[in-house]
Design brief:
Blueprint: H1 4-9, H2 12-31, H3 51-60, H4 71-81
């Protein structure tokens, strides 16, 4: 005579719940990490950076530039917000 535990283990619902948990764990491990990591800050002299690199540098510091800013305006903002080197 089957016990309640035997009946519970033989049901499809338990199997579906288990596969759902496994699927959720797999999805979390895949998408929970940085799938597309951010690009690093540009290095070197800001005068040689592209407009996109200057925009990315400013945005990383919550200094969001206007979309109509020229390269010269962006360069001024970048230089104004760069840290001075310590001696």
């Amino acid at each position: 005579m089957p016990t309640p535990l035997d009946r519970a283990l033989n049901q499809k619902n338990l199997f579906l719940a288990f596969t759902g948990v496994i699927t959720a764990a797999a999805a979390w491990s895949i998408w929970g990490q940085d799938m597309f990591p951010k690009e690093s800050d540009p290095k070197g002299d800001p005068e040689t950076w592209t407009q996109e690199e200057m925009r990315r540098w400013l945005a990383a510091r919550n200094l969001y530039p206007n979309s109509k800013d020229t390269k010269g305006e962006l360069l001024e903002r970048v230089k104004a917000n760069m840290r001075t080197p310590r001696a």
